[in-house]
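We read letters as residues; the fold follows as tokens. Both lines appear below.
***
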Amino acid sequence: GIMSMRLRELIRAVRACKTQAEERDAIAKECAAIRTAFKDEDNPYRHRNVAKLLFIHMLGYPTHFGQMECLKLIASPRFPEKRIGYLGLMLLLDEDTEVLMLVTNSLKNDLGHANQFVIGQALCAIGDIGSVDICRDLAGEVEKLLSSPNAYVRKKSVLCLLRITRKCPDMIENYIDRISSLLSDRNHGVLIGTLSLLIELAETEPSLIPSFRSLSQQLLKMLKNLVLSGYAPEHDVCGITDPFLQVKILRALRMLAKGDKEVSDSISDILAQVATNTESAKNAGNAILYECVLTIVGIEADSGLRVLAVNILGRFLLNRDNNIRYVGLNTLALVASGDIKAIQRHRGTVVECLKDPDISIRRRALDLVYLLVNESNVRPLIKELLVYLSNSDVEFKEDLTSKICSVVTKHASSKLFQTDTIIKVLTEAGEYVNDQVTALLPVLISSDSILQSFAAHSLFRALEKDNSKSKLTCIAAWTCGEYGELLSSSCRIDETDTVLEAVPSDRVISTLVQTLDSSLQTVTVKQYILTALVKLYSRYAPMRMTIRSALEKHSSSIFVELQQRAVEYSLLAQMEPSLVKELMDHMPTPDDEAVTNNEVQTPSTSRQTTGRPAAAPAPSAVDDLLDLLGDLPANPNGNQAPPPAAANSQQSLVDLMGDIFGPPPTEAPAQPSLSMSDAPLPGLQPQQDLLGGLMTGGGGGGGG
């Protein structure tokens, strides 16, 4: 009947279900049948029903009602029933289930059973879900089994001790002395289990490591026998004798030799032997080589051995298997601090990994390339990274751009090369460059006129070619505004023996105006360009009318920031030429200390509203300006400005000039006391209220 449906029939029935609801019905029906069957004490199909419950459990349905049945099966004398019972115990219960306490007695009985497989089942159960109480109660029985004549039982009991030492760390002392005798066992399974126990104890209680060091000679002998032994069919994996045991021995030796020169020296020869004799064509060999490398790196090895380890990792990078290449790159990055010279020999291979289709390998290779850069190889590596930047994935670019720039400023001695690299990065990936990078450029070129000329020429040409990258456009506009007069003469670079042709002023202004008028540009970009135009006003005399008409065109912009700037700049342009020249002069050079301390403000912080890379002036710069202006000049109409209160005039002037020297006031523009003109200038009607103070010198605006 349905009560005894076979497991495979249930699996078929579930697979035949078309919908989730249908599957739920089938499972619910079967669970009901199993529950009914469990009530019948003499049911011959109890183990079959528990097996079906295990399948139902794997599908994610509740099966807790079967827990007691597992205990009944374990108590059964028949092995097939015991086996299902133990499997159910390990899957349906965990160590916190209270029912588990009831199984302690069955486990104790089974540990003394005549059949090795029954003992094995009990040891597996303890090793898998043994609670603290079970481990404590049965530790004595498990320890007795370590001396069993049967290797299968010895192996399982050693692994069971692993669980006991994890659950009851206070019992570790009882097993320390057993390890030496277990290591002389001839069975490889027992040896692997014992080494796992040794490694676990050393990790849990590092204070035990000195007492374990005497075992290193025993381990050495074992490893030598494995390396030098001929073909052993029962332990052979791809022509290598028991790679699993070799890996465990290497790991144990690494723990014992760490920080101990004597043990490290004693195992150096065998490590060199393993490193040179292991066949790397198969995965098993690579596993041993990898463990060998980790051991060489982890102990007090001499430099020759470390170079050998790095060369093995270099060979890993040439492997066709992605996993092995990944492991090689990862480990090289870990050892880079101590063995950078040895790794440099594999630089070409590492750079090749940047072209790998697998993103995780590219990422690891990139991290390693940064570590490899030094003064002598910075140029070729930066060249490779720039090529990589042009082909890299979008999510990589931001990290890549900042790393290229930090590497070049750290390792390249030539400021020209630094400037050129940053400009190339901006040109290639302008949208992904962070503000730290854009802030670097003005600082780099601030003290050298050749660099200023080179930057102005390069960035202007980049802007002409492509004005779609807002950060590139901003920095290009800033540089043209600051050093635009240098474009009028050609720029000769001796270092690269190139000459950049002069650019006529009308071409510079028309490019800037064209970008300013583009509807695709952001407000931030337009703010930069307006400031650049007003700066060039005093330097490009023939272009003044073009600049003024561009400013006036934006005096009625719908963006208040642009409108305010354009209006203020238009008024500035009408002031006395000598005064305009002073106001539009170059930014002061940042002091070296601020630069070296990386305190250079990034464009985003120097002025939040516009992102302009202009450092706010020191108070003295404003004071000098006020001294320079003395009594404010007559206005264009010849009407003398009324003499204002000194403090008020100073504040007004600072407010008016705030745009050039630093952040402007956040509220409405201040009320300047100078009357520019009694009649408002044409085209300024929309700002009548906003700039009432500017126009008439009267009230309005929040001055100070």
